[in-house]
Amino acid sequence: MFCEKPVAVDVTGAKSVIETARLAKQKNLSLCSGYCWRYYQPMRETVKRVHDGVIGDVSSIHITYLAGSLWHRGNDPKWSPMEYQMRNWYYYTWLSGDFIVEQHCHNFDKVNWVLNGKAPVAAVGVGGRQQRRDPKFGHIYDHFATTLEFAGGLKVHSFCRQMDGTAWDVNDHVVGTKGAAQLMKWSVQPFGGQAQTFEDPAAKSMYQVEHDELFAGIRSGKYINDGESAAHSTLLAILAREAAYTGKRLTWEELLASKQNLAPKEYVWGDIATPAVPMPGVYKLA
Questions:
Q1: Which letter, b or e, does each residue of 93-113 get, where b requires 16 or more Cβ atoms within 10 Å of its Cβ?
Q2: Nearest partner of 237 among 129, 83, 152, 123, judged by Cα
Q3: How far apart are CA 184 and CA 170, in angstroms?
Q4: CA–CA separation, 192 and 178 (whole Å)
């Protein structure tokens, strides 16, 4: 199976993917996720140097996905409310996870990769919608600013935005005790030393590589299974989202104990309510 990111939109979905990935391992089945940066050779070389200790112990990470607005597919009197939400799925958390999960999840996956799957302790955050206020945009936010806390004092600072007329910035800055790495520039630099850059214009497309390695693994019996790490990366983004939605300091244990399931009670081409815009201090994690 090739499973596109973010693999889930809620805690129940992420747990289901983890269980599915474990069953796949038992049955020798491949599950390759769409967290594509793990399949780009310059990125692999950069993260390898971080893991090799070139910049020392990681002390903080600053991730950004600052971008513009996306599509909207309009409305049609023939569409039921369910069909409208399905066609404009991006603007409903039960379908997209909000853009911090649907888009910014790539940055959280790189955090998960750099930290070798280390789980956070808690998260705090803020967010809201300033440009995306029209009801046609459902109930998702258009900006988030969150911080994930890890044991030992390490913190991950996350900023994401989807607003027109604003500056774009998609980056991952990893700061260590001996240097720093710029993942989207494929470079590492010890403090006081020369930067090493692994940019390779001839590098094969990561979208092709992930499929090449998936097929090669099936043929050779060396099965790829990204399911658990993909679910963990998705949960990092969900933790950040829920911290901003609630306005509370939300712990990892509280998130994993949640029974959150955003799916409708039944999937029918009829009426479905539009959830309220999450209001910090009022919204609660189920």
A1: bbbbbbbbbbbbbbbbbbbbb
A2: 123
A3: 8
A4: 9
Question: Tokens 């983890």 appear where?
Answer: 18
Distance CA 234, CA 13 (A): 10
pTM, two decimals, is 0.97
Burial of 262 (0-12, 13-18, 19+ CB in 10 A): middle
Report the alpha-carbon distance of residue 85 to residue 79 in Å, rounded: 9
The Cα 200–Cα 177 span in angstroms is: 27
* Average pLDDT, 10 consecutive residues per value, the chain (286 residues): 97 98 96 97 98 98 98 97 97 98 98 98 98 96 98 98 98 98 98 96 97 97 96 98 98 98 94 95 96
Residue found by looking up tokens 């790829």 in the block: 224
